[in-house]
From TrEMBL:
Domain of life according to the entry: Bacteria
InterPro entries for this protein: DHFR-like_dom_sf, RibDG_C, Riboflavin_Biosynth_HTPR
Every Bacterial bifunctional deaminase-reductase C-terminal domain range: 5-177
Protein name, as recorded: Dihydrofolate reductase family protein
SUPFAM superfamilies per UniProt: Dihydrofolate reductase-like (SSF53597)
Classification lineage: Bacteria, Bacillati, Actinomycetota, Actinomycetes, Micrococcales
Organism, scientific name: Microbacterium helvum
Amino acid sequence: MGSLVYFNSASLDGYIAGPDGRWDWATPDAEVHTFVNELLAPARLHLYGRKVYEVMKVWDDLPLDDLPPAEREFALQWRDIDKVVYSSTLAAVSTRRTELRSAFDPAAVREMVDAAPGPVAIGGGLLASAAARAGVLDEVHVVLAPAVVGGGTRFLDEGLRLDLELIAQRRFANGFVYCGYRVV
């Protein structure tokens, strides 16, 4: 039986993108990127909303020879996982191993997660918040960037309440901090 795991980077004030939509302040260095690769490697299925999918699909075609080692490893991992994209506005998806669904169905997600041999990753604050509200989110993982951005796209929806148990933590040389939590 798998678990549904939300991972994202965030500013100290809880945003995954600033008011201008940028997240360059959260760009991982090689140490953090390698850690994220290891964290996400067991997840053979990723769930995305449209916006996150549109950001992530670049990994499908990037020339591997041009990438630093940690990014090359991530690109190879991303190309080798199954992906489900939830969108009512996309007509089709362009990446390999990707299925498009028009709506997020918590019961279907729970079935996928329960059938998975390991964790299932969910990307994006809106989709993770929908999973949390539906009671199907099992873990929350965040890499906090040493930045306060003052607004933008939230890590999780405002007003969402979750009780969490700390299961892992790590500090990085660049000032980033990782925390992993189980939803209780």
